[in-house]
Amino acid sequence: MSIDLSEPLPPCSRPSWDLPEIVEVQTLNTPFEPHQLRNFRSSFEAKTEATEIQIRTNSPIPIRALSPVLHVGNVVLTESEQIGENLYRFWAFEPNRLEAEAPISLSWTNTPNEQLQEPQFRYNRNQ
Questions:
Q1: pLDDT at position 4, please?
Q2: Distance CA 34, CA 5 (A)
Q3: pLDDT < 70 positions in the chain
Q4: Strand positions, DSSP E, the chain
Q5: In the prediction, which pLDDT does 46 show?
Q6: How far apart, in whole angstroms, are the C-alpha atoms of residue 25 and residue 123?
Q7: Strand 22-31 and strand 68-72: pairing?
Q8: Looking at residue 29, what is its pLDDT?
Q9: How far apart, in Å, are the Cα atoms of 127 and each of 27, 57, 84, 100?
Q10: Alpha-carbon distance 47 to 97, whole Å?
């Protein structure tokens, strides 16, 4: 028998983890400069070249424990950073694996292929 006469708390609304739509894609072949780390070494220190794919989205990517990834055909780009308002860069360290006209889509880490967003853009080395 409970002696607490208060009403139960109303359920909280959950945050939306929906990813925004990609509205623009740009591909750049740029020298890669890894961030300088103080407390440990990174495997990126040996990287000097990478293909950078910048995407602009129609709203911010929600911050959560999982990272966003960019699918370029069957290649999943996991290294990224935000560089402006709704502007993100992803790096391909093995650009020879990127196939011309491969569909580009944004997802969360480990999203099955059948759940990927319908691609609106295709990979072009000269975008």
A1: 72
A2: 59
A3: 1-2, 37, 42, 45-46, 126-127
A4: 22-31, 49-57, 68-72, 75-77, 80-84, 87-92, 103-108, 121-122
A5: 65
A6: 9
A7: unpaired
A8: 82
A9: 5, 16, 19, 11
A10: 16
